[in-house]
Amino acid sequence: MRVMNYVHGSVLENLSDISVKLLENCGKALARFDRALARFDHPSLHRTHRWDLAEAGRQRRHLSRIENPAQRDLVGWAFERWQSVRAELPALPQQVIHGDVNPENLLVEGDDVTGLVDFGDCLFTARVCEPAIGIAYLMMGREDPLAVAESVIDGYTSVIDLAPAERAVLLPLACGRLAVTVCMASYRQTLDPGNANWFVSLAPALRLLEQLRAHA
Question: C or N: which end of the chain has fewer Cβ atoms within 10 Å?
Answer without folding.
Answer: N
